[in-house]
């Protein structure tokens, strides 16, 4: 029996992404206008987490008399419960506003979240650090029943941190209170609208001067590319989130498929949230507020292509959003997240485990793996 096996990962299943979007994230997921379909989506996430072997739970909370539920899956590492554990997370919200189908916002993030979990649990490997997968409820803003001049959002991640995550850390890592050192969380939101047409990407005119000042290299890149919406936007705070963001950037570039580009939006830690509101409108903000490293990956939502019209509208649908370019763009994002999490969680092959060869590897790659495995077996037999 081999002491270790060559383990292939990071070849996303387009079939899994497509069926997940089509079957569970193609209709409104709102607690008032379509509660049954929303429940169907949350149950699917929960059941998939369990099928992948994650320690799975709901985190229930109440807002203005309505019930909501975050879904959490935990993949424990060897360092679980110790000071050495550097937890890394992946998160995406699964709810929608009351009228949209929500395929891009945020069926895309949920499909990628589940694909990453599928990849990371389908090979014969373990890891030193713990991974947490989280599907957030009630990310979308809605008017309060009692104070209609106010709106509320990002509530699922807010309450998950205060009501579940921090107590969970205190329970399982009591010796690390005040000295916890997580790798951080990757937050997906609206991540599959790829458009390589000229002028398909916009920068809000009111924010153009701010963008030029804060991200001169990004603006130059967009200008040189005729403002094509062909990139994944990665938003992070440079000092605290730099390690996570840099690893994500490196893994993206290793994935090939150069037509799918990336732009890095590194923010100063002291930048006020109202400085660039488009970069502060998803669940990563709550992790920042709790001093937890987080990066936000997105197609830029209503600043790009079809989503300029379809963001929070009914046309964010399968017919509008599900095509080969978008699916492959989402696949590269999924693969990059899986590779980043594998690297930071320090995965390693398990003795005697069976490798899983995902779709997408060439016959040549498989033959090389078999030759290496055979050579190692011969060496072990001779030793």
TrEMBL record:
<dbReference type="InterPro" id="IPR007484">
    <property type="entry name" value="Peptidase_M28"/>
</dbReference>
<feature type="domain" description="Peptidase M28">
    <location>
        <begin position="70"/>
        <end position="194"/>
    </location>
</feature>
<keyword id="KW-0472">Membrane</keyword>
<keyword id="KW-0812">Transmembrane</keyword>
<dbReference type="InterPro" id="IPR045175">
    <property type="entry name" value="M28_fam"/>
</dbReference>
<dbReference type="GO" id="GO:0006508">
    <property type="term" value="P:proteolysis"/>
</dbReference>
<dbReference type="Pfam" id="PF04389">
    <property type="entry name" value="Peptidase_M28"/>
</dbReference>
<comment type="similarity">
    <text>Belongs to the peptidase M28 family. M28B subfamily.</text>
</comment>
<protein>
    <recommendedName>
        <fullName>Peptidase M28 domain-containing protein</fullName>
    </recommendedName>
</protein>
<keyword id="KW-1133">Transmembrane helix</keyword>
<dbReference type="GO" id="GO:0008235">
    <property type="term" value="F:metalloexopeptidase activity"/>
</dbReference>
<feature type="transmembrane region" description="Helical">
    <location>
        <begin position="356"/>
        <end position="375"/>
    </location>
</feature>
